[in-house]
Specification:
This protein is an all-alpha fold and 242 residues long. It has one domain: Methane Monooxygenase Hydroxylase, Chain G, domain 1. Helices cover 83% and strands 0% of the residues. It is built from eight helices and no strands. α5 runs antiparallel to α6. The chain is elongated, with a radius of gyration of 21 Å. The C terminus is likely disordered.
Length: 242
C-alpha cells in the first residue's frame, strides 16, 4: 500500500509540472497576441497590461525549476521520467523568453503611437505574428498530445517565418529611405518584427525538446536557424522607383 501511495504521489508531481507548462504556454500566447494588437491599434492600456503580465511567466519558470530539481533529488527518476523533467525545465525557459519578447513589443507601443504611421506598415507585422503564433499554438498542442509526427513540419515552418521576416525587413528599410520621418517608427517596428521572428525560434526549440522527451532521440542539427536580413541591401535609386 505504501508503494502505491508513493507511485501515485510521484505521478501527481510529474503531472503538476506538465500542467504548469500548459498554463505558461497559454499565458505566453495571450501576451504575444495582445502585444501585437496593442501595437497595431496604439492601445497603450493593453500594452501596459502585457508588460505587467510578464511576471506570471517569470514566476512560472522559477517554480518549474525548483520543483523539477526537488523531484530529481527526491525521486531519482530514470529514462523517460528524467527526460520529462529535464524537458519541462527547457520548455519553461523557452516560454519565459516568449513572454519577454511579447513584453518587448509592448514597450515599443508608445514610441510607435507617438508618430502614427499608415496601416500598411503594420500589415507585415500582423502576418508575421499570425505565422509565429500558429507555430506556437501547434507546438503546445503537440506537448499535450505527444503526437510528434508533426514536428518535422514545424521545423520547416520556422524557415517560412525567417523568410517572411527578411521580406518585412526589406520593406521597412525601403519605407525609411523613402521618407526620413519613417525612420523612428520603422526602426521600432523592425525590433518588433525581430522579436516575433525569435518567438518562432523558441517554438521550434520547444518542438525539438518534445521530440527528445517522447522518443529519447535528438533531431538532426541541420536546420536553418537564421533570417537573411543581413544580406538585404536597398539601393537608393531602387527605393525612389517604388
Amino acid at each position: 500500500m505504501q508503494t502505491q501511495h508513493i507511485v501515485r504521489a510521484y505521478d501527481e508531481e510529474l503531472a503538476s509540472l506538465g500542467n504548469r507548462i500548459a498554463a505558461m504556454g497559454g499565458h505566453a500566447e495571450r501576451m504575444v497576441e495582445q502585444s501585437v494588437a496593442a501595437l497595431v491599434n496604439s492601445d497603450l492600456s493593453l500594452a501596459r497590461k502585457v508588460i505587467a503580465d510578464d511576471h506570471v511567466l517569470d514566476e512560472g519558470q522559477r517554480w518549474v525549476d525548483d520543483q523539477a530539481i526537488l523531484l530529481i533529488a527526491k525521486r531519482q527518476p530514470m529514462a523517460d521520467d528524467l527526460r520529462e523533467i529535464v524537458g519541462t525545465i527547457r520548455i519553461s525557459a523557452d516560454l519565459e523568453r516568449v513572454g519577454d519578447l511579447g513584453k518587448n513589443i509592448a514597450k515599443r507601443v508608445v514610441a510607435v503611437a507617438d508618430t502614427r504611421q499608415p496601416i500598411r506598415l503594420f500589415r507585415g507585422i500582423e502576418a508575421l505574428a499570425t505565422l509565429a503564433l500558429t507555430q506556437l499554438k501547434q507546438v503546445l498542442d503537440v506537448y499535450a498530445s505527444r503526437s510528434v509526427g508533426a514536428i518535422g513540419f514545424m521545423r520547416d515552418r520556422d524557415e517560412e517565418i525567417d523568410a517572411m521576416y527578411t521580406s518585412l525587413f526589406r520593406e521597412l528599410l525601403t519605407y525609411m529611405m523613402e521618407d526620413p520621418r519613417n525612420i523612428t517608427p520603422c526602426t521600432h517596428l523592425l525590433f518588433c518584427a525581430k522579436n516575433i521572428e525569435r518567438i518562432g525560434d523558441h517554438a521550434t526549440n520547444i518542438a525539438e525538446t518534445i521530440y527528445y522527451v517522447a522518443t529519447g532521440e535528438q533531431l538532426p542539427l541541420e536546420r536553418p536557424k537564421e533570417d537573411k536580413s543581413h544580406h538585404v541591401v536597398v539601393l537608393e535609386n531602387a527605393s525612389k522607383a517604388l
